[in-house]
Amino acid sequence: MPVDADQAGKDQLIAEATGARTAAPEDGLDIARAMTIHVIPQAHIDLLWYWGLDEAREMVLDTFRSHIELLEADPSLTYAQSQAYAYDLVRAEAPPLFERLRKLVSRGQWEIVGGEWVESETSIPGPEARLRQFLAGQQFFMDHFGARAKVGWCPDGFTLQGDFMPQVLRQAGIDAYVHKRPRQRHAALPPVPYRWRGLDGSEVLACRCNNKGNGLPRLSEGVAAPAHKGDLAIIAEQFQRAGIDHLWGPMGIGDTGGANKYVLPSVSAWFTARYSTPGAFFQSVRSSVSPSDLPLHQGTIHGEFAGCLTTWANVKSLNRLAENSLQQAEFAIALGRLLGIAAGADDLGPAWRRLLLLQFHDSLAGCGTREIQQAVEHELQEVVHIAESLRDRQARRIASQIGFRQQEGMPLVVFNPLGCDFSGPVEAQLILSPAVAAAMPPSPPGGQVAWSDATSAADVKLFAVDDDGNELPVMIRRWRWVQKRCQAEIRFDVRNAPAMGYKTIYVKSMQKHAPSPVSNDGLLFKAGKMTVEFDPAGGIRMIHVKGHDPVIAPPGRPLGMPVLHKTGKYDINYGQELRAWETGFTGDQRPLTASACSVNRCSGGRFLVAFDYAIDAGSVRQEFLIEPDSDAIFAQVTGDWRQVEAYLKLHFQPNCNDTGFADQAYGFTSDLPRDNEHPMMYFAGLHNGRIGMLLTNNGRHGCMLSGGVLSLSVIRCASWPEAISDSGSFAINYNISILDVAAPSWPAQCFRRAWAFNIRPFVCSPSGEGNSLPPARSLLQGAAGPATCLKPAHKGDGVVLRLFNPSPSGGEFVAPSIPGWRLCACDGFLEVPTGDDLPPGRRITLDPWRIVTLLWTRATDCPRTGR
């Protein structure tokens, strides 16, 4: 229900956000040459915001039909439209209209812009999802129009635009970029077209423009302008000083689409206004001045609405799970293809496009109504179900071809989709074999449907055994008997699971102790690789990993301490932009103190430490898992959230807090800005030049560095226009680990740990037995390099291998050998082969922060050219 608030305060907030200038457009004009105003008609269509897809369908059809009729009637008119999803909707719903549209595109009146499937959120989608938006969009445009978009389009993005984006745009075939945010009051970007250079050195020509208007150039909000000069006069003088005689004149409507009125603005003789397109504008800019003479902006373009990073936290978590599950499924299908095991009719294309649609900037940012956001949650759950079903089905197909030694115990196959060998914990939910189930507590009379927790199976001794002689203890996370079968969620360590391959292990009952059990003295725990001490009030006092200096928290500020932050009366879903709502993070804080603490011994030589916190509306529980031979602490925060105008954050203030860092999708922020909520993808951390603390997570995106404290945002609820964001149950998982940051390649360690925590190895319980595959296999045997993704090719029966060098220093990849397949280089991630074959053993140079795409095709049909 709506939250009562002072209407005068709301009115003031609106006035501050929309303050208007009174000078006429050409007042104070002082230019030396005549100029051309490129009037750019377009319509912004929000697909998922205050309405759903049914309403958006009508908006799309009406907008396209109206503009097609207008342009057909007058060849001087132009129009630009983004979002391949909208084009596909017209193709499916109105084929004759689509054919008329194709003619307008071929004549140059209608320009395709954006190149993405939808206008997606800019900071929250994961690395592969950012690429897939362009892969799906540009491939659609190529298939149906014979051309790709050349101008990137971000008219309504809310959050940070990462330093990896120039590289992504260039690889997508895009050399120019239009964006509205951040406005001038949030970021002082050049007032004229500028060069945007990314972390890897790629550049695009960018321009900050309004997307709505009557055809006249408008200043970005927050520009300090003389009262006697109009917007057009100021912008014209700025452009002429830069040597540019062409101006961007926005003519647009939104957010519901519709038809433009097509009335050229009235201007003096100094200006000629004509209908144009984004591509023609940028071509005119390049004709006026050498791009090398334009201003340069290097790195990230910061956002405005940081609340979007956390609002509707369940949507963020489900989006991450959907991305990760799709990548696991792709890996299983691609692995089977390279091993000669068909995947049947399994096709992940529809599921990916469904996810890309749900990553629309309003819905993924959490800006929609309760009804829309709950519908998005449901759709994301469906994507997860589809991906996990396809993943498990293909994993069973592969596992059924492996020869097992049944006498060794219950066989399991660990699939590793990562580009490096993996040693660490994996989890699985499965039905235990009768021999293994015999070690579990007996089934009560009549069976047991309810789950029992980890402490009830603390004395069960199960081990995961592999062919290398490792015998690693298994933890029973929870379990139950269902009709004489024991179902269990288990967690165990695997050693050296081969990169982009699989490994067989056997679970068996053994009456022995864990090789390196965890011991404790109260809240002080000693494991094989580290010592951890907890604070009775909650959180961690000290972590000491062998070979590193101890990481210690200051008195009264334990690591991971939950803190309640109040954000102010007029906090909005997007994150209040003008009232510096971040001050709530450093001002009105309430550290939570645990009302209860418990230490529980679990199976597999592990301990679970839990803290319960009582808050005035809801509850919070924090659990830490201490494991044998681990150099990381697994943590989980759960609870029932009933707060309004508040954040829940986790605070970390270690003694290595000189510099903060965080990842982006395919980028890296090496020095977090202070006192501002900042995006992260999979990790954030702190370091002092020698030692660092890394925090990886699987579903949150907001962090802040302030006063030496790094805080992770867990959940929040705004209040305006109503308290429609987070409430109810929530959960977040994260890992705490210690790093040596003295070597230049330390960022690569962070990326590898974070990827392993997300696109993690998964487990299959085989349903059959064959002899055609060995018990372990790696596609990258003998190869070295940071592979990040293995997937079926977008078209055909090839397999794509993605590489990324997450380091400021160069690297290399050695082409592996797969019988019957030929490896080719691609011109970017659109999977267009260059014709450059890569024979086994060929060394491929990887420049810093570079994304590289390779394509396996069958040896008999590898294309020699992709042009």
CATH class membership of the largest domain: Alpha Beta
Helices, by number, come to 15
Could you list the spans in which at least 5 consecutive residues all have pLDDT below 50? Answer: 1-18, 577-584
CATH topology of the largest domain: 7-stranded beta/alpha barrel
Task: Give the CATH superfamily of the largest domain.
Answer: Glycoside hydrolase 38, N terminal domain
Strand content: 25-35%
DSSP E strands, number: 47
- Secondary-structure class: alpha+beta
How would you characterize the overall build of this protein?
By secondary structure, this protein is α+β, with helices and mostly antiparallel strands. It is built from 15 helices and 47 strands. The protein has four domains: 22-304, Alpha-Beta Barrel (7-stranded beta/alpha barrel), CATH 3.20.110.10; 406-512, Immunoglobulin-like (Sandwich), CATH 2.60.40; 519-756, Distorted Sandwich (Beta-galactosidase, Chain A, domain 5); 780-867, Immunoglobulin-like (Sandwich).
Task: Compose a concise summary of this entry.
By secondary structure, this protein is of the alpha+beta class.
Q: What descriptors fit this protein?
A:
single chain; 867 residues; alpha+beta; 7-stranded beta/alpha barrel; Immunoglobulin-like; Beta-galactosidase, Chain A, domain 5; 4 domains; 22% helix
Write the layout of secondary structure elements.
Elements: H1 7-17, E1 35-45, H2 53-73, E2 79-81, H3 84-93, H4 95-107, E3 110-112, H5 127-145, E4 151-154, H6 165-171, E5 176-179, E6 194-197, E7 203-208, E8 213-214, H7 231-241, E9 246-255, E10 271-275, H8 278-288, E11 296-298, H9 313-338, H10 349-358, H11 361-365, H12 370-399, E12 410-416, E13 422-431, H13 434-437, E14 452-453, E15 462-465, E16 471-482, E17 485-497, E18 501-509, E19 519-521, E20 524-526, E21 530-534, E22 540-545, E23 551-552, E24 561-566, H14 583-586, E25 589-591, E26 596-602, E27 606-614, E28 618-626, E29 632-641, E30 646-652, E31 659-663, E32 668-669, E33 678-679, E34 683-687, E35 691-697, E36 702-706, E37 709-717, E38 728-740, H15 746-758, E39 762-764, E40 776-778, E41 787-792, E42 799-804, E43 811-814, E44 821-826, E45 833-837, E46 843-846, E47 851-858
Parallel strand pairs: 1-9, 1-10, 2-3, 4-5, 5-7, 6-11
Antiparallel strand pairs: 6-7, 8-9, 12-18, 12-39, 13-17, 14-16, 15-16, 15-18, 16-17, 18-40, 19-20, 20-21, 21-22, 22-23, 24-25, 24-30, 26-27, 27-28, 28-29, 29-38, 30-37, 31-32, 31-34, 33-36, 34-35, 35-38, 36-37, 41-42, 42-47, 43-46, 44-45, 44-47
